[in-house]
Automatic annotation (TrEMBL):
Pfam families per UniProt: Ras (PF00071)
SMART domains: RAS
Name of the protein: Ras-like protein member 10B
SUPFAM superfamilies given in the database record: P-loop containing nucleoside triphosphate hydrolases
PROSITE patterns the UniProt entry points to: RAB (PS51419), RAS (PS51421)
Domain of life: Eukaryota
Species this chain originates from: Halocaridina rubra (Hawaiian red shrimp)
GO MF term (any one): GTP binding
Length: 123
């Protein structure tokens, strides 16, 4: 199991929102064997942001990787830039979570079966 939190790279407030969502999830669930991937979208628009916003977004990447110990990917859905990498990170997070649980799939085929039979929830 894994959670994907997606936010708008051009809006720090959207990161604050997913931080609150993440905190709620961690308060209500046992997250020891659950992967987390944070995806910053609209990377194509980041260059037009001012310097302060760019600095905040760099800080976001550090917080996610170091404090949350989660995967972090920046994408542009509009340009289809790094979208596949985000899904790859999701699969790695699921695989890592299963490695720490007793229901470890023995190969990639079993991992795909576990994913197919799992519930998907979009918040």
């Amino acid at each position: 199991m894994a959670y994907v939190f997606v936010f708008d790279l051009t809006s720090y407030d959207s990161f604050v929102h997913i931080k609150a969502l993440r905190d709620q999830v961690y308060e209500s669930r046992d997250m020891r064997n659950v992967g987390v991937v944070v995806v910053g979208n609209k990377r194509d628009l980041l260059e037009s942001c001012d310097t302060r916003e760019k600095r905040e977004m760099r800080d976001v990447a550090n917080v996610v990787r170091k404090q949350w110990k989660a995967s972090y990917v920046e994408v542009s859905a509009k340009c289809n830039w790094h979208v596949v990498a985000a899904f790859r990170e999701l699969l790695l997070a699921v695989e890592d979570a299963h490695a720490h649980s007793s229901a470890l799939p023995h190969n990639l085929h079993e991992l795909h079966e576990v994913i197919e039979h799992s519930k998907c929830t979009i918040l």
